[in-house]
UniProtKB/TrEMBL annotation:
The chain crosses the membrane at residues 103-122, 134-152, 159-181, 218-238, 250-271. This is Sulfatase. Gene3D superfamilies: Alkaline Phosphatase, subunit A (3.40.720.10). Residues 1-94 are annotated as: Disordered. The keyword Transmembrane applies. Keywords: Membrane, Transmembrane, Transmembrane helix. Residues 46-76 have a biased composition (Basic and acidic residues).
Length: 645
């Protein structure tokens, strides 16, 4: 473009310059204009030669996302014809610091490429988070680059932004998988696991307080926004760069595609990982298959739950061998195989079980124990509870909702159906209404609001186990009844994060729980315990010892000749405690004063102790209900309605 001022007049006619746009002279007024001050073609050429425009080299990335044929800001600015060379408009720090601008452009482009590569290659398993995973060739990146090169400019940018958002969403799901595997030993299910995020927030608030939880939630929201925005910006930037250098980009894409095909054909690997990666495609396919399988499983499980051999068994034909007994089902939070067999935690827990066996034997009780494989791991205790009591394998939230919405017979509702027991629940972990009480057949549930506790919380646990048992004695077991009791008790002191921990005190000192204020203040903080794995595991072991001691001591003091105790763990602790490849086995034991109670399970071949040992039988947790019902006199019923009581 010429540096002449645009005019509608023919170029041969001279015009007087407008005085308003001329530079001011001295105090005498406007400066006079000599004839040589008028711009001429030769003068313009001289200006052009004297002050050449600075242009980026063809290979240099720039922050201006424009194609070669797009007009630039410099071309659109008319330059007034004035005396002397006219300086080009200042485009900011890029013109003042061209070397720094080039470095920033290259750095931004490199970061964009790295971000896209990481999102394409990020594994969803924490055990695969190794450097080798990120130095592979992603086929999805090659295919995406080829597609963007073929699209016209108007379609290219929206497609690039959409691709970036999709990559961000897939990365978010990968991170959820990693978190769920670390805590629950399984990946994130996109159909029914969203509700667990709310439970996680509640756990955080109970563990680190409201302020810390708000900080975590804000950080999580910012991370989600970053995952949605940054990959989109990165893909758009890379697509613009490819458009400006289409020939070179096409050649690079072809070379990488050829390398991927050869690597896949030859099976080349880097540190055990295939060089030719299709991990993103595989994960997408796996998620689609998972959604389809989940929907099919929901229908199949509904049919399974509706088919129950004991559904129509009359109450007078259920649990006939336990009539007159006070039966207590107790779940100990996170009490798993690791507690009794891990080298660091087992010595203390095993000693507690050995002493407990002797203490109970001295009080006239006998015990048998075995192993059950839980349907859950690291958390979601209600899945373990419902699996054990219903005789159905309930390993996800949808199955739990399905079964609790129906009338499938549970061990606890079987006692209620007989009409021979009063059925109660002691639920210190329940802090609001719990409609599932009807499904479990409980006449009354004492939640955290009804147990009368006036002491402090111990992290997540609303009250110490010893207090829960003392409240059970005060509210139900110690009172006269015209029927024996069937009780379901949840002990929560061994719940993650295992700090601070309560201590066993005299039963006459428990009172309303205010005695625990000084114990809680003297305890350890979760943030201090969780700094080292060994500390976490040590405190976990101590929490199990406390829960076991509380339960054993309760039976010693308040049990009688009609007491039958069934206690077990609901699941293994998180992987940080139990290890990356731990089983899902939990101990289960039956304690009774009447020898006939244990004779009925002699064919179970359980260990005659509270500690199952390595050779004790291992059953799936969902098989326990039918075995228990059969052992104690129940028989599958005919298709006739159950007896009414």
């Amino acid at each position: 473009m010429s540096h002449f001022t645009r005019s509608d007049q023919p170029p041969q006619e001279k015009q007087a310059p407008p005085t308003g746009d001329l530079p001011q002279g001295g105090p005498s007024g406007p400066a006079e204009h000599a004839p040589d001050a008028v711009a001429t073609p030769d003068a313009a050429a001289a200006e052009e030669k004297a002050a050449p425009k600075q242009k980026a080299t063809p290979d240099e990335p720039t922050d201006r996302d424009t194609a070669p044929d797009e007009p630039t800001d410099r071309d659109a600015i008319p330059v007034a014809s004035t005396a002397g060379p006219t300086p080009l408009p200042d485009r900011g720090w890029r013109d003042r610091h061209p070397a720094l601008a080039r470095a920033a452009a290259w750095t931004t482009t490199a970061l964009a490429a790295a971000l896209v590569l990481v999102t394409l290659l990020l594994p969803n398993d924490p055990n695969r988070l190794t450097p080798a995973e990120f130095i592979r060739i992603p086929v999805e990146g090659i295919a995406g680059a080829a597609l963007l090169l073929l699209l016209p400019q108007k379609a290219r940018r929206p497609a690039a932004a959409l691709a970036g958002v999709v990559l961000g969403l897939l990365t978010l799901l990968d991170l959820l998988d990693i978190g769920f595997i670390e805590v629950l030993g399984r990946g994130f299910n996109v159909v029914f696991d969203w509700v667990l995020l709310g439970d996680g927030a509640s756990f955080l608030q109970d563990s680190i307080g409201r302020t810390g939880t708000i900080g975590v939630e804000v950080a999580a929201v910012l991370l989600v926004l970053a995952l949605l925005v940054l990959p989109a910006l990165a893909v758009v930037r890379l697509s613009n760069l490819m458009a400006r250098h289409a020939t070179r980009a096409a050649g690079t894409t072809l070379v990488l595609g050829t390398a991927w095909v050869l690597s896949a054909a030859l099976g080349l690997q880097i540190a055990g990982a295939p060089l030719a990666s299709r991990s993103t495609s595989d994960l997408v396919q796996a998620r689609m298959d998972g959604v389809s399988a989940t929907l099919k499983d929901e229908r199949a499980f509904a049919e399974e739950a509706a088919s129950d051999p004991y559904h129509h068994t009359p109450g007078n034909q259920l649990l006939t061998a336990l009539r007159g007994k006070d039966v207590i089902f107790t779940f100990i939070e996170s009490y798993g195989r690791s507690a009794v067999q891990d080298k660091l935690m087992a010595p203390g827990v095993d000693a507690t079980l050995a002493k407990g066996t002797e203490r109970l034997r001295a009080a006239g009780y006998s015990a048998r124990s075995g192993w059950l494989t839980s349907a859950t791991y690291g958390g979601s205790s209600w899945l373990g509870h419902s699996t054990f009591l219903s005789g159905l394998w309930i390993d996800n939230q949808q199955r739990y909702r399905t079964v609790t919405a129906g009338d499938h017979l549970t061990l606890t509702s079987a006692f209620k159906r007989t009409g021979a027991w009063r059925t109660v629940g002691i639920m210190p972990g329940v802090t609001k209404s719990w409609p599932e009480a009807k499904f479990y057949g409980l006449d009354h549930v004492y939640d955290s609001r009804e147990l009368g506790y006036k002491g402090p919380k111990f992290s997540w646990s609303t009250m110490p186990d010893q207090y829960s048992l003392a409240a059970f004695e005060r509210l139900e077991h110690g009172k006269p009844h015209n029927k024996p009791l069937m009780s379901e008790i949840i002990l929560t002191s061994s719940h993650n994060p295992w700090a601070p921990l309560p201590k066993t005190i005299g039963w006459d000192k428990v009172g309303d729980g205010s005695v625990y204020n000084s114990i809680e203040k003297a305890g350890k903080r979760p943030v201090d315990v969780w700094q080292q794995t060994d500390k976490v595991r040590t405190e976990y072991g101590k929490s199990i010892q406390y829960s076991l001691n509380s339960l054993i001591s309760y039976v010693e003091k308040y049990g009688n000749k009609n007491t039958v105790l069934v206690f077990l763990g609901d699941h293994q602790p998180v992987a940080k405690v139990s290890g990356d490849h731990a089983s899902r086995d939990v101990p289960v034991a039956i304690v009774a004063h009447d020898p006939d109670v244990l004779k009925r399970i002699s064919d179970w071949h359980w260990t005659p102790s509270l500690n199952p040992g390595h050779k004790a039988p291992v059953w799936r947790m969902d098989t326990f209900r039918d075995r228990f019902l059969k052992a104690y006199g129940s028989h599958p019923g005919s298709a006739t309605p159950p007896a009414t009581h």
